[in-house]
Amino acid sequence: MIIIDALDECDQEKDIRIILQLLFRLQEVKSSNNHQDLALHELPKPVIERDIRLYLEDKLSSIREERSFAANWPGDEAVNELVRMSSPLFIFAATAYRFINRGRHPKKQLQKFLASQEATSASQMDKIYLLVLNQTIQNDEDDPAEVLKEFQDIIGTIILLATPLSIISLARLLHLQADDIIELLDPLHSVLNIPKNLGAPIRILHLSFRDFLINTTSTFHVDEKETHEKIVLHCLRIMNTDLKQNICGLSSYGTPRTNIDNQAINKHLSADLQYSCRYITSSMAFDFMKQHLLHWLEALSLIGVISEAVAMMDMLQSGAGEDMDAEFSNFLYDAKRFILKNAYMASLAPLQLYCSGVVFLPMRSIIRKMFLNCRPKQIHMLPQVKDDWSPGLQTLEGHSDWVCSVAFSPDGQTVVSGSYDNTIKLWDAKTGSEPQTLRDHLDSGHSEWVQSVAFSPDGQTVVSGSYDRTIKLWDAKTGSELQTLRGHSDWVQPVAFSPDGQTVVSGSYDNTIKLWDAKTSSELQNLRGHSGPVHSVAFSPDGQTVVSGSNDKTIKLWDAKTSSELQTLRGHSNLIHSVAFSPDSQIVVSGSNDRAIKLWDAKTSSELQTLRDHLDSFNFNQESLPDNWIALAGDNILWLPMEYRQFTASATFPFELPEFSSSFCSILLWARFAVYVKQEDESFTLTDQATMEFLAGDFVKILLGCLQSRDTTVRRGLSVISQ
């Protein structure tokens, strides 16, 4: 039997999610209750006191048997008093038991405990914590002031560490002798879990102890800010001393991470060094970074947390605030670009940071100038590189086949992707951290290609459409499957949510569009009228109308409530890839394989404008971002800068160029504007300018957003607004 308690005390929600996903693999799972939180204070007082009494009687009887005390010890009066003091806090009863059982004289400990709990203004837990802590001074022959300082240094560090450390690691971190720490901790077994194994981590038994020390006005108060600053200085000291290039002494700079034994890593990177590398977020780290940035990233790669480096760069920047000098700010920007570009490579082969990582940096890169000499001596000839960073921020690797569809969550923090490898993955849009793969309770998911994905307007749900003829709804936080919608008789191509998130629309190769209830999975409407597969569907922003584009070269408008066909828009000479509404629901935009983008009046079905270029077909989709922006993409992608959006004639615009992933199984995060041309031989040619006939009105703007090109490599604009 496996019992899991206190899921609510997980530091991060993703930890709960991982545990829940693992539970699905068990044959039988039982839950004590189906409530999100169990409110103990709402239970009847007699019920609470009964359970506490049972606990105390059991624990005290075990002490009586172990110590061969009289059969009537400790007596009903003492038990009743302990129950009264403990109610309604089980943690109080548990701490009381550990205090009484600690040491050679449980009887004296019990009397001391009962005597200390006289009426005062202190809370129940404050009283018991003060009793425990006072023993550290009373039992010590040293100067109480010295003991208090040592207490605040050691215990303050223990309660504020992001992850617990062992006595050995704590001694190294604080530059103390392990025996001194052991001596101080000895009276604290009732509030701390102190293993006999000096290499095992010390843990707080309950978070209320941490809160007490931070908030108490007693002499045991721990200054949180001051202690954190001391921890940072200790971390910097350890990293400055221990970090170095090729810290594990690998024979080759191409050694894969999977070939490096974890024992070897732990031997060369002690627990305190690993901790220091993971939690250095102070502006005091600038001097350290200028010398050890690559060493630090190598260490993070070796311990498998290189993706955390991006978040740490952001915290360093936000921690410095407005007082950050320009030199540090520029360094952090360049370092972040370096990490985003090389994190995946470093996770596979950490020492490549010193090889391909630095030699392919732009000429003006600060990191290049600082660390180019760290490259292996065998690298004599350096490649030609650009002067500045390209627009490509990061490539997200993880799919094993073509990426067909991507979407951003409404808050822009998460990317969802669907692939021909039959999987859906969630990615952190800022860090590109390891994706979560959405699977059902059978650990499978879709059985065929995932053709389309989308977030609900509130970001809580993901919808996916697949060639297995199903639509699935997923919980975006837990990754669990919520619903499977069945009804199409052929491949499902596009899917989308209604603006209120209550309805899902899907299009299929069976030539139909279906509307579904997102909560019950029931089919609401079946829209028939197309004579070919439906490639694109979308709701109008007011939720009243559905637009669809098909292989039959037409766009159709439908009443979302009655399923009646409202309009048929004709004018394209090839299949329709994409359709979308303007934010005011008055205009429909369509993209086709005839290399044209058309704008239509949604009420009259009249064609308003045609946008053409000299290249190939277009795909586009529209995101719920401020302003009336439209995203255009296809086998060719064109970003139109703001200053050119009002042009009404042909024009040639210069662009900064990205680098392109050669893999169709990746997602590339963009920083700026870009153009590329797909040649007849399927190769890509990057051009430094593009010509496009752009017939525009105020309602047409180019969106920084989520694009899908037919080559299935997905690209995304991130930081354009600030440039």
Write a concise keyword list for the protein shown above:
disordered C terminus; 4 domains; 723 residues; 31% helix; alpha+beta; Arc Repressor Mutant, subunit A; four-stranded mixed β-sheet; globular; six-stranded antiparallel β-sheet; 32 strands; hydrolase activity; WD40_repeat_dom_sf; PQQ_b-propeller_rpt; 18 helices
Low-confidence segments:
36-41, 614-664, 670-723
Cα shape: globular
Report the oligomer.
Answer: single chain
Q: Which sequence of strands runs across the widest sheet?
A: 20-21-22-23-30-26
Second-tier CATH architecture of the largest domain:
7 Propeller
- Computed over alpha carbons, the radius of gyration is 32 Å
* CATH fold naming of the largest domain: Methylamine Dehydrogenase, Chain H
- Mean pLDDT rating: 80
Tally of DSSP β-strands = 32
How would you classify the helix and strand content by structural class?
alpha+beta
Termini, distance in Å?
58 Å
Structure in words:
This protein has 723 residues and is an alpha+beta fold. The chain folds into four domains: 45-118, no CATH class; 144-222, Arc Repressor Mutant, subunit A (Orthogonal Bundle); 239-389, no CATH class; 395-722, 7 Propeller (Methylamine Dehydrogenase, Chain H), CATH 2.130.10.10. It is 31% helix and 21% strand. It has 18 helices and 32 strands. The chain is globular.
